[in-house]
Amino acid sequence: MIKRIMSMPEQEKQVTSDEITEVTRLLTQAYPYIRRQKMAEGVLTDSPLESLVRAVLSQNTTDVNRDRAFTTLRARFPSWDQVADAPVEEVAEAIRESNYMFTKAGRLQQLLRELRAEHGTPTLDFLRGWPTERVLAYLTHFPGVGNKSAAIVALFALGRPVMPVDVHVHRVAQRLGWIGEKDTPERAHQVLQRLIPDDLIFTLHVGMWEHGHTTCRPVPKCRQCAIYRCCIYPAKTAPMPTVEEAVAMTAGKKAA
Question: Helices marked H in the chain — which ranges?
């Protein structure tokens, strides 16, 4: 029986551009449905403000619960002004599926009111003309909006080459040896942002996210891992499959 508690190597390996390109290619083969899935969720057509609201709702919950909360919020309050002005209890009730509903409701109302005071209406469309670093600095000044949430808005709503690092991306990057075992999400963002070419960031982000969500879980499903040969994680749970075998197990999973 393979022991699960094993240390990762302390040193980051030398990551080549060829490996990054190959991992991107293999994850695209393994999860060909992921772009279509993200489109269906609405995250690729969100305005910057919608993207930020969805990012706040996503904290400490699943994407399914996030989207349910977002849909209920928009149905109950057709305008962002209504969200800003409603009793906090009503906003919290609308987003109850997202967990920590009162905390999130208060934060959403605070940022909507601040945007309205500054720009006359709750909007983040003005970010479209800003340089990326200014966008990230502005978004993270709101309470409860960290680097990951800001990066999500920049990547998905503004089309900027910024790498969000959530728990799934962080786990996959560690097991690939692209970041160190003790690297924080903030450090991981810096390292991955430097390593990954701008034109691969979106594809690699969604691929790593789905890989961590589906295959490279806390106890990994190594027999369906298309990037097994690039992985340095010592506690593998199966011998290396062929790429064809791995892709066959994952590629059609959410094709419908």
Answer: 17-30, 34-41, 48-58, 63-76, 80-85, 88-94, 101-119, 132-139, 147-152, 167-176, 185-195, 201-214, 243-250
Q: Where does the pLDDT of residue 10 fall: very low under 50, low under 70, confident under 90, or very high at 90 and above?
A: very low
Mark whether 38 is an active-site residue: no
Tell me, what CATH number does 53's domain have?
Answer: 1.10.340.30
Nearest one of 181, 108, 203, 115 to 149, comparing CA atoms:
108
On whether both 120 and 135 belong to a single domain, the answer is yes
Rounded to 5°, the CA angle 215-28-20 comes to 90
In a domain? residue 6: no
Domain of 136, in residue numbers: 42-157
- Taking Cα atoms as reference points, which of 40, 56, 38 lies closest to residue 48? 56
Q: Which residues contact 131 (CB under 8 A, 6 or more apart)?
A: none
pLDDT at 13: 78
Q: Which of 13, 38, 148, 221 is catalytic?
A: 148
Q: 119: Cβ–Cβ under 8 A, 6 or more apart, which residues? A: 126
Average pLDDT of 225-247? 97
In this predicted model, what pLDDT tens digit does every residue of 126-183 receive, in sequence order? 999 999 999 999 999 999 999 999 999 999 999 999 999 999 999 999 999 999 999 9
